[in-house]
Amino acid sequence: MSGEQQDAHEPARWQRATLPMIDMLPVDGLFGNNMSVNASDLGHALYGKLKVIGDDAPERPLIEMLASIFRMHETPTKTPPFGPMVVLADGSRSAAPDDFAGPLVEVIVAVLERIEHPVARARLAHLAWFLERRRRDEGLVALRAYIDIIERLDDGRLEARGERGILGVTGRDLLRMAFAVCHGLGRPAGEHDRLQELAAGLLRRVGGSDDGFSLRLFTDLALDERAVPPRRRRRNCRDLH
Length: 241
Prior knowledge:
Layout: H1 39-50, H2 60-71, E1 73-74, E2 82-83, H3 103-112, H4 118-131, H5 136-155, H6 169-184, H7 189-207, H8 212-224, H9 230-239
Helix pairs in contact: 1-2, 3-4, 4-5, 5-6, 6-7, 6-8, 7-8
């Protein structure tokens, strides 16, 4: 299958990008007006570009790298926070975080500095910080980008595939991912307070509806992150039974 790692002794297609390639590509124009909060949708868009450029195009390895990074699936409550989209019985797989360790982190950070799309910024910054925890600045970029994504999903500037608004699995998972980064950074006060406000506010909103599924999603999140006072926690737990 296209995009899978085939030979452990040769760099995969997504491991061949270099810093000079960044000057060959208008990086920030790659996503146009893409309104998706799903990083995999950005990956699909890049794979579409790969279909129309030549195999020997000098920017191809950089697009391959970015497409593979965005196509990794999210694991908000686990470490690493991303994983291969495809793993086959013979051991071959699509990209995983450790594939980008070493010199490729510099390429990722250089792309990050040129890009504005919040979903792309969150994924690239989070990956760079995960691979090199000394990069606290990139961790903060990721955290603030996740908060930006959540706010844009809530007000309709961004959309979640297959869901209406923020009160679904995607919204919950974005908050989970943001909280995980926030905890890893030592809970910076401004960002941590904002995340708790968002979690508590979304719980209040879903609590006034008859959507039991969303109520459970956001009650569990608020309880885990101590985003509601103790009395409110007990009342919401009783409401779920």
